[in-house]
Amino acid sequence: MKTPALIPFTALALLLAAPALRADEAKSYVLAKKGAAPAVGTTVAVKTTADYSDAKLELKVESQTVPGTMSTKMASNEVLEGLAPGKLRRTLASKTSEQRITVQGSEQDPPEQADALQGLPVIMEYKGDAWTAKLEDGEPEKEQKKALEELVKQFDTDTDFTIYGDAPHKPGDKWNVDAKTIKQFAGMEKLEGSYSVEFVEVKEVGGVACAMLKSTFDLSGLSTEGKEADKQMKMKVKGETLTKRSLADMVDLNSKCTAVMSGEGEVQEGMTMSIEGPLVAETSTTVEKKKAE
Predict the structure, then answer these.
(1) Are 211 and 247 in contact (CB under 8 A)?
(2) Cα separation values, 107 from 74, 220, 229, 272, 277, Å
(3) How many CA atoms lie within 13 A of 283 on its CB side?
(4) Class assignment of domain 30-288?
């Protein structure tokens, strides 16, 4: 007979808790900071994979069309160590890529190109609204100089800041990003189209408060490869990205992109190529903070 008496108290507790829940939902969060680097003593390990498998391929030479398939897979492990405000040590621990092209039953495996900076610690520093990069030890060779220049471009691109900005956002917010302000995305540049973000909720992931974000995009642009030979392909990508972003460290603990990517262009004199297939790319990050002595 006493059990029903619990119902009013339960209802009262829920009513009392409701304003607190609504207040938490209304709280705003800054998701990115320009020129952000890991805090001093913090190590951020980033694992990235990309899989563009079973893409349909067509080669055209004059009036002849030759069908085929292409599969590309990439994996990398990168470590960032906070040394000082705006300063970090970046080490590419490993990077592998494999590509397989099949045309008329014949398989081709283009040779893998090693990254010139793999295993070499690089000191990155944010100065005057731009990043600089240098080897921690020794002077860079020719290929390493080029790789350092590309690394600086990658850091200066700062896609996270472009997409999230430093204005506070709260759960339920939705916003559009001007595609032309995104310098690079999915191996593409000079972007046009649409990119939108939804802040779904705040949720604990492994004891870390994270912004749960959903991005949808429909973009077109030029491939970042082929510039030197003036053979940039016209590319399109359409899909979504689901992200768990640490609110304390402003890094993506996990981000998974699923999309369809296509492209077409001249690959050599008199030969054009078109390609379309599914793309799955995922980034997982771990953050290790220096223990207080």
Answers:
(1) yes
(2) 19, 29, 25, 19, 18
(3) 16
(4) mainly beta
Q: What is the pTM of this model?
A: 0.85
The alpha carbon of residue 99 and the mean position of all alpha carbons in its chain are separated, in whole angstroms, by 21
What is the phi/psi pair of residue 203, to 5°?
Answer: -145, 145
* Token pair for 86: 């705006």
Separation of CA 104 from chain center = 35
**Which residues are registered as beta bridge partners of 19?**
none
Name the nearest CA neighbour of 239 among 87, 72, 50: 50
User: For the segment 252-272, what is each residue's pLDDT rounded down to a tens digit?
Assistant: 999 999 999 999 998 888 889
Question: Given the structure tokens 């972003």, which residue do they identify?
Answer: 245
Alpha helices in the chain (DSSP H): 6-26, 142-157, 159-164
- Looking only at the bridges linking them, the beta strands covering 271-288 and 252-268 are antiparallel
Largest Cα span, the chain: 89
Residues 122-146 pLDDT 10s: 999 999 889 999 999 999 999 999 9
Q: Are 159 and 179 in contact (CB under 8 A)?
A: no
| Residue 228 tokens, joined | 């030197």
Cα–Cα distance, 173 to 240 (Å, whole number): 17
| Structural contact between residues 61 and 271, judged by C-beta atoms closer than 8 angstroms | yes
